[in-house]
Amino acid sequence: MPRMRTAVGAVAAAAVVGVLIASLTTGGGSSRVRASGPFSWLAPSTPPAGWKVARTLAGAVLAYPPGWRSIVTDPGSASVALVGKGGLIEGYLNATPKGGPETLADWTRFRPQHNRQEGDRRVRLLAGTSSASFRSGHGSCVIDSYVTSRAAYREIACLVSGPTSSAVVVAAAPSALWDERAATLQRAISSFLA
């Protein structure tokens, strides 16, 4: 009988430990799902030590690495860039409050069309997801490429729905520098707060 009580106690303790581990790894019932495939790098995280932050007027927080600098773009947005020789943007990060008809459901169609309307050429959707998790909510993301009057670019662009507002976050680099810049851009997207 004492052995049976010990065995039952051990099973009960193992079950409690299993429930605790499951609740800790899932955020206590959180519905966060790690993206897969081309977005497997996307996991909500805090910015690396030493990174600075820029804020939109609506309160979205965009983290960026040392050596990057604020640049002026659309009113209400936060934009930073790594500017190279001749003024060529070698890395670009932007956060803008949602202001148009875009939705999480239509983001993979909306974003490439928006780029075309901005005058970009040869816009090509490379990947998309509608199951992206962020520190402040969930979102839809695309990876696309396009050509401007200055260079060919690749970008990650996400529409993020936070608790009180939605914002668009964009990370881009010249296609020729993408492999060199991708990890930094992905880290900035992963630490974004809408």
Describe the protein's architecture and organization.
There is one protein chain. The protein is an alpha+beta fold. It folds into 2 domains: 1-30; 37-190, Protein Transport Mog1p, Chain A, CATH 3.40.1000.10. The protein has helices spanning 2-25, 107-117, 178-190; strands spanning 52-55, 61-64, 69-70, 78-83, 89-97, 121-134, 137-147, 152-161, 166-174. A hairpin with a 4-residue loop joins strand 7 and strand 8. The radius of gyration is 21 Å and the shape is globular.
List the helices and strands and how they pair.
Blueprint lengths: L1 H24 L26 E4 L5 E4 L4 E2 L7 E6 L5 E9 L9 H11 L3 E14 L2 E11 L4 E10 L4 E9 L3 H13 L4
Antiparallel strand pairs: 1-2, 3-4, 4-5, 5-9, 6-7, 7-8, 8-9
Query: With helices defined by DSSP (H or I, 4 residues minimum), what is the helix count?
Result: 3
Level of helix content? Answer: 10-25%
Q: How many individual β-strands? A: 9
Can you identify the CATH superfamily of the largest domain? Answer: Mog1/PsbP, alpha/beta/alpha sandwich
Strand order of the largest sheet: 3-4-5-9-8-7-6
What is the CATH topology descriptor of the largest domain?
A: Protein Transport Mog1p, Chain A
**Any guess at the CATH architecture of the largest domain?**
3-Layer(aba) Sandwich
Cα radius of gyration in angstroms:
21 Å
**Averaged pLDDT, please?**
85
Domains, number = 2
The end-to-end span amounts to 58 Å
Overall shape:
globular
Helix-strand string? HEEEEEHEEEEH
Structural class: alpha+beta
Beta percentage is: 35-45%
